[in-house]
Amino acid sequence: MKEGWEIIDLGSVCHVQRGLTYSGKDTVDISDQVVLRATNIDLGTGKLIFDELKYLREDLEIKPVYALKKDSLLICFSSGSKSHLGKIALVDDDYPNFFFGGFIGQINPSEKIDSKYLFYCLSSETYKDYISNLTDGVNINNLKATDLKSFQIPLPPLPEQQRIVSILDEAFAAIAKAKANAEQNLKNAKELFESYLQGVFENGNWETKTIQEITKVVNGYAFASKDFKPTNTVKSVKITNVGVKEFVEEADNYLPEKFKETLKDFQVKEGNIVIALTRTIISAGLKVAVVPASYDGALVNQRVAALVPNEKLVNQNFLYFYLTTSGVAKYVLEHVNTLMQPNLSINDLKNMPVPCPPLKDQQTIVRQLDALRAETQKLEAVYQKKIADLEELKKSILQKAFKGELTESKIKEPCV
Fold first, then answer.
1. Coil, strand or helix: which one is 299?
2. Could you tell me what percent of the chain has a pLDDT over 70?
3. What is the DSSP code (8-state) at residue 279?
4. Which of 3, 230, 275, 347 has the maximal Cβ count within 10 Å?
5. Range 22-38 burial, b when 16+ CB lie within 10 A, else e
6. Is 48 helix (H, G, I), strand (E, B) or coil?
7. What is the pLDDT of residue 416?
8. Of 8, 268, 349, 270, nearest to 155 (Cα)?
9. Which helix (H) or strand (E) holds 152?
10. Could you tell me which of 306, 303, 284 has the C-alpha nearest to residue 343?
């Protein structure tokens, strides 16, 4: 430990206050009294977010201890998600008539510790590891105030704390800028392929056929819930396997061996296309995927349709590329039943129009799209690694900071 530093319990330099408990009858649609909840603490940035505010009736008397205090920290004490337990946000301004609710608490630093220094302490991997080992409860994870106050932090003299905060602020601002640029470049790489893909199908003057004219459409079989057991041997393609341009493998979708022979018409092969008929389209896009080799011979479950192309009329990969375009998403949105969930009928799927150039041209288009996709995926991998490296750099800098090893000369601005 660096000379002049000491290791202390958080509780010795902070006061921890649990949040306000209120009932449903205390809430109103709008008022001047706002109560923040765990959802108002952003897990990624450690900042307050003011979405989905909760309002309390104005005649409800609230003790001052539940009011937000500038330079305090809000902390999540209870959450249904372990990853959100113990998340923090720095209260960086005055918020009159803002209070904090029962599932969160407020940490009020004493004059011995700089609030921003404490915020950085509680952003470290050491703190996150400490919190993850304190989970209890089955449905809700709870953090006890006594355990929080027992967390040990390195405490240098106040001027040193402020020097560390200044260095971290500057370093993290540079990292944030570099990360934002990398994320924009990642987005641009993805949009490059999507734009080219869309242009291919928008600019082609080709004959149009329906899905049922160029493929065999396999409408899933209605298996009973009791048919699925982990000890069975035959895989099934369920609706949960079909993601947005992604096939999701699962361990609970096995059927009895007898179905392999009696339900051959419901089998799929590697490379076949599957599409969800329930919740067909979500905010992330259309739920369509390609069957992987590990699911070759699997049986299609209800609310999933499989497309087996007529190889004389349509290239399988050409059809998949087309199904991922915004034009198909538009068709689905125009035909889904949105009363409950966006469900696409099997008939609307069968009647979906598909542009069909000559097979040789389809193969050429697929080669071009495959080549561009490979290049954009390389770019995406570069930017994803850049983002991951920047996150690791933040962890490394924090680790150095609380070991007393942080100097300006050791902090280099990351490449932007």
1. strand
2. 95
3. S
4. 275
5. beeebeeeeeebbbbbb
6. strand
7. 46
8. 8
9. strand 152-155
10. 303
